[in-house]
Amino acid sequence: MSPAPRWLRVLRHSRWARALTRWLGGAPPIPAGLWRHVVQAQPFLHRLEPGQLERLQLLCRHFLAQKTFSGANGLQINDEIALTIATQACLPWIHWGLTGLDWYRGFVGIVVHPDEVWAQREETDEAGVVHRWREALAGEAMQGGPLMLAWSHVRTASAKAQQGHNLVIHEFAHQIDLRHKSRHQAADGCPRLPNGFLGLAAPAAAQHWRTLWGQQHRRFVREVQMAERFGAPMPWLDAYGATDAAEFFAVACEAYTVQRARFGAEFPLLLPLLDAFFKHPAAATAAP
C-alpha cells in the first residue's frame, strides 16, 4: 500500500496539528474528493441535510486534528480509514457543534486492527475461583485510551445500520460514559448530563436518567432472556445491551444515531432523553 498523503501524515502528528490549527484558525481542510467518496460510501449519511453535512465535516476536521491513528497487525492507516472513523464518531454531535468534541477529550490514540483481536480475560468469582478465557474483540474503549477498532467492522457499517449497529459509535459512547469519571470508576450508563438537562437541577436530572434507564434496561434483559430461553422474538436492539447498564447505553446510542425513528418506536421513554442529551431539535424542553 502506498504511503498516506501528506494531508493525513501531518494530522497524525499532534504537534503539527496544533500548529496548523493555530495558523489556520481552525483545522486543516479535508480534500473535497475524499469527503465526497467517504460520504457516498456510507448511505446512512445521505439522510443528512446540506447544513448538517457541513457541520459534520467541520467536526471531522477538528477531530482528525486532535486524534492520533495507529495501524496494528499490518494495517496501514490511510485517509479513507481515518475519515470514515471520524464521520461515524462525530455523527452524534452534529446538533452540538464543536463543543460536542469535548466529550472525546479524555484520550488521543485510536488503534485500528484489520479484524477482530483476541484478548485474554481473567475474573475471580465470589468463591475465589479464578476464571480465564479468550474473547474476540471488534472494539474496546478504556479510560485515557487508546480506543481500539476493527476495520473489518467499521467499513461494513452501512450494511449494519438498518439493524441499529455501529461499532464506532458504540465504542465512543463508552468514552462519553467515562468522560467525567475518575480512573477508579467504571462506565455505568450514566454520563454527566449537560447543564439544565430537561430543565432539571443536576441531582434531579441524574436521578431521572438512572430511573428510566434502569427500568428500560431491566425490561430489555427480560426480553432477551425470553428470546434465548423460551423462543420469544429477539428484540431489535442488539442483545449485547443486556450485558450490563454500560453496554445498554452504548448499544442504545449507536441505534439512536443511525436509526433514530426505529429506536424511538422501541424505546419511547428513552428517546426524549437521548434527544435532549444530543441536542436533537425534537428535544423536549419541559421537565418531565
Automatic annotation (TrEMBL):
<dbReference type="GO" id="GO:0005829">
    <property type="term" value="C:cytosol"/>
</dbReference>
<dbReference type="GO" id="GO:0004177">
    <property type="term" value="F:aminopeptidase activity"/>
</dbReference>
<protein>
    <submittedName>
        <fullName>Uncharacterized protein conserved in bacteria</fullName>
    </submittedName>
</protein>
<dbReference type="InterPro" id="IPR024079">
    <property type="entry name" value="MetalloPept_cat_dom_sf"/>
</dbReference>
<dbReference type="Pfam" id="PF06167">
    <property type="entry name" value="Peptidase_M90"/>
</dbReference>
<dbReference type="InterPro" id="IPR010384">
    <property type="entry name" value="MtfA_fam"/>
</dbReference>
<dbReference type="GO" id="GO:0008237">
    <property type="term" value="F:metallopeptidase activity"/>
</dbReference>
<dbReference type="InterPro" id="IPR042252">
    <property type="entry name" value="MtfA_N"/>
</dbReference>
